[in-house]
Amino acid sequence: MVGALVVAFFVFAGLYADVLWYDQLGFLSVLTTEWVSRIVLFVIGFLAMAVPVWASIQIAYRTRPVYAKLNSQLDRYQEVFEPLRRLAMYGIPILLGLFAGVSTSSRWEAVLTFLNRTPFGQKDPQFGLDVGFYVFELPFYRSVVGFASAVVLLSLLLVIATNYLYGAIRVSGREVVISKSARIQIAVTAGVYLLLQAVSIWLDQYATVTETGSLITGAAYTDVNAVIPGRAILAAIAVVVAVLFFITAAIGRWRLPLVGTALLIVSSLLIGSLYPWVVQRFQVDPSARTLEAEYIKRNIDLTRDAFGLSDIEAIPYQAKTDAEPGALRSDAETTASIRLMDPLVIGPAFQQLEQFRQYYQFPDALDVDRYNINGQSQDTVVAIRDLNLAGLGDAQTWFNAHLVYTHGYGLVAAAGNQRSTDGQPVFLQSGIPSSGELPEFEPRVYFGEESPDYSIVGAPKESKPVELDYPAGGDSGDQTYTTFTGDGGPKLDNVFTKLIYALKFQSEQIFLSDQVTNDSQILYDRDPIERVQKVAPYLTLDTDAYPSVVDGRVVWIVDGYTMTDQYPYSNKVSMSEAISDSEGITQPLAFDEVNYLRNSVKATVDAYDGSVTLYAWDTQDPILKTWKKVFGGTLKSMESMSGDLMSHVRYPADLFKVQRAVLGRYHVTDPGSFYSREDAWTTPKDPTQPSTTSLLQPPYYLTMQMPGQDAPSYSLYSTFIPEARGQASRNVLRGYLAVDADAGSTDGKRADGYGKLRLLTLPEDDNVPGPGQVQNQFNGDPSISAQLNILKQGQSEVINGNLLTVPVGGGLLYVQPVYVKSTGETSYPLLQKVLVAFGDQIAFQDTLDLALDVLFGGDSGADAGDNAVDPNAQPTTPPTDSGTPTVPSDEVQALLNQASAEIKAKQAALAAGDWAAYGAADARLAEIIAKLLTLTETPQ
């Protein structure tokens, strides 16, 4: 009893803590709705299983023959079972009821969406039913029928066992004798079971439009002409057999239902399996391209609709491959915005230049955003300076970890298209206290991706602050302290609440510490994605939450998706596979196979007080409309979003990744071509990764102007190459997909162009090199290799940044920043060179501006974002580690050009077999390399 009470109190502590957490956040209705739904469904499931099973056992027992002659073995069974009879008759139904209740309660979301379902307003092409029937109703009906079938089947088995145990069913040799009462009960139960199977088979014909076949998802020719009619026939046969069982209950003859059951089994084999196989093998396979065309067209149209691709604009693009002088003049704005700072590479630079103390940290992978600075949109790389309690070392006591070090400080932003003379990021917002060109904002970050598991904040007004705000700087080591003044967590204003949280976090200090007062609050579940997931359990969230300065606050912006796998005729995609790339590999999701996806909600989490706001973004989504009926009042209208917030929301990357995965095949709209897979595409592998990996190249956010746009906009893009045939794929570009990711900056109004997808389709006879080919050109060019070898002096590491593809100059421009990182422990990558390519021509210079001018015949016609960098100037701030050399560009470039000429001379001599010329060229090359080494030698 004591043990049970202790366990019960721990459970209660967890539940009550949840109530306090949701109540403080203003989403208590979400928790109570879920709890009430689960409890009601548990009771329904328990009663729906336990009562019929109990009634079946009771009826079988009470109608048993009193004077039945039992064999000696059954007598022994009865002797053993009789003392346990009452326990079994109640225990078995209760145990089965508990399992059924738990199973039923887990389906609370399906039940609530069924009860609050919203029509899609679109009918499926096979049965003419609203799509909502397949998304909301059919899964519910099939679940109910499946549950009822399980109840009846278990009841039937227990009825047979009970009747056999008490002699109502006797087996004598080859003869089976069944009493009248047992016959009636068994026959009626079997008849009900067969009726349920008839309903199940009837519903299965509708499920054909959501099932995945060998060719498409949805009913193909064989399904429409054999499977669907066959299931209707089998359902009718099952009804007839059920009627035969009811007749047997009345007249007592088992031959008819047994013959009917055998007929049902044979029919299911012939009609359900053999006939569809014959149709497929001898009618469809020989003429599949023709017969399946209608159904492939259904699959193409509905797949594109389900993934938001029906309005995509396909633009034939005759990409130029000749880099002519002045070619970028009409794309000057795009060229000036090309991002050189790779957020996956420059994380160590943020850490070394902006961390300041060991108890701060920056993530390895930074985020990208954009801000309006001096009237111009500026792409930025941003990160939060968050806490790192592990950096406290021996000072990581409970008091320090939970009362003193409670929050991170500041958002750091660097210009995406600029770098300092020595290759460091150009910070637009930095330092402690935070300063820069961004609007003023509250810099304290109590809710972040790396925040402590819990912190206790707040104190009486007259008390001395104990929370470390930020280091004051200088040699004195002074610190600035603060007290949290927001409403960020449940209040610890009484002994009972302190006890609850002491139990939840298994920390008696919460209960005993004199620093925990009635004015204290406890902050926990602080990761922004976790907070949004808890208040919106019906959403699947984007894997990347990013911070922005909005209306004077730092907020995390999180994209939420509604999805289903029951959209008729839409191809199913593994979401975890589709969104995995070189930026991160996603583990399989709980709901992974999807064939309908919408970015229905934009959520924000205030980094100071943790408040969560959900905005209904896709107001036309029927699934979101359904959930709004369930959780009324938790979603705000998009019209309530400020213009400042609008300027930072973006088209989400995970949605775009799924769409590009679908478009690999579904950019083809002709059924014949689709069937033959004549023009299937795939996303190229990330060329900057080792060749042994198969990680895909991620999409990139850039400000650029696509064909069909009047001006540059913040966009997200990806490329396509031909799908692999055999061992490898031809790494030439076939498509370029971009979406307008800029929602504008007007209060409550989304920009007209937001979400517009444009697909540049390149002609098959024009071999524009893909990312893999371009990377190979960069890596294999002798002149570039020689320069890279110089940069690697002192065992420095050369890091290739993201390889960007930009549609400018009538063609496709490749840009790749090259970083150099020395071997010291405190070193970080410095941007030293830029690689560019256009067609088969490449250039490698100190700045993007110089590289473009070299690439386009001496004058590209546009200035890049780093045109203010003087490549010959000395660094204003020396690198932390002296292993990174500074290269005098003019003399080195001249020697490199000579080296390139001698390498080509060696290759020509080798091909001609002229060993004398080969030796002379090799000697000259050795002299040039010696001069280069002398010229670039790093002083010790």
Beta-strand percentage range? 15-25%
General form: globular
Helix content: 40-55%
Compute the number of helices.
27
Low-confidence stretches: 874-890
Please compute the radius of gyration using only Cα atoms: 35 Å
Question: What structural class is derived from the secondary structure elements?
Answer: alpha+beta
Secondary structure: number of strands: 34
Arithmetic mean of pLDDT? 89
How far apart are the first and last residues' alpha carbons, in Å? Answer: 77 Å
Main sheet properties: 6 strands, mixed
Biased composition (Low complexity): 879-888
Keywords: Cell membrane, Membrane, Transmembrane, Transmembrane helix
GO cellular component, one term: extracellular region
Region (Disordered): 863-888
Care to describe what's here?
With 940 residues, the protein is α+β, with helices and mostly antiparallel strands. Among the domains are: 11-178, no CATH class; 455-524, no CATH class; 529-761, no CATH class; 890-937. Helix content is 42%, strand content 19%. It has 27 helices and 34 strands. Strands 3, 25, 26, 27, 28 and 29 form a 6-stranded mixed sheet that branches. Strands 17, 18, 19, 22, 23 and 24 form a 6-stranded mixed sheet that branches. Strands 5-6-9-10-11 form a 5-stranded antiparallel sheet, covered by helices on one side. Strand 32 (811-821) and strand 33 form a beta hairpin. Helix 5 (108-115) crosses helix 6 (131-165). The longest helix has 35 residues, at 28-62. The radius of gyration is 35 Å and the shape is globular. Mean pLDDT is 89; it is low at 874-890.
